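Quick question, first post here. What does this chain look like in 3D?
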Amino acid sequence: MFLQFIANGIVIGSIYAIVSLGFALIYNTTKIFHLAYAVLYMFCPYMILTFFHGLGLNLFISFTVAIIITVFLSVIMEFLVYRPLAKKESSLNIMLISSIGIMIVVTNIISLFYGSETKILNSEISKTFTIGNIILTYAQISQVSISMILIVVFLLFLKFSRFGIMTRAMRDDDVLCQVLGMDIYKMRYVLFALSGLFSAIIGGLVAYDVGMDPYVGMPILVNAVVALIIGGIGRFEAPIIGGFIIGILQALSVWAFSARWQDAVTFLLLIIFLLFRPTGILAERKRLV
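> Answer (accepted):
Ran it through. Tokens below.
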């Protein structure tokens, strides 16, 4: 039974890791606390619902088109809201409030057209795969497998590609990047697109397994932000580690106590880190000038 909960924690942790990584892409490079990121997680499943059940398209085609639309929505947020504010040198507080506004508007539009009740993408009973005493559904295996592929590919690109060098440069000093001739606004479009891609893929996979409602994005984002903080802000590897730690601890809290303790354990962990290691697990040493 213990190993089953560990396996469940790894599945949950892979979800948190990808969502947190997508959030970190924006926060680490632009310093925007992108709360509207929560709606991307739930927007993709509703697009899949539209094309799969509404129009009767193939599941793979529906998933692909939904991801493309969600990525486009993520870029639109940057184009219509964040970029104009950045060019006017608006404060980060104004961008945060604007992000909340985007989240509220998109959430209410989805509720208006689809209703607030839970929607199901897959009504069939999921097939299971058994390893010893551990039982996982094919949907859970897909979530972990695709998450790990995304993580590995991203970290390789981050380390060895020109895109990775530019991303790390923006994280360190976007003003200096502009001075050296980098088009940071073009780079921001790429980052928002990639961030939206991460959220869309994992949101669609989870919704296919357990369904969705218009408000499902915010609880996931809260856990993802905690994962980023305990992992270490500024490091792109950090939210991955933080996500798996939170996922496993939440699963163990269910095993030891009950499901009601999941949020309590998460925020207790956050408080401990804020008090004793506010820079996170993978904190970078910085020289004070």
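The chain is about 75% helix and 5% strand.
The radius of gyration is 19 Å.
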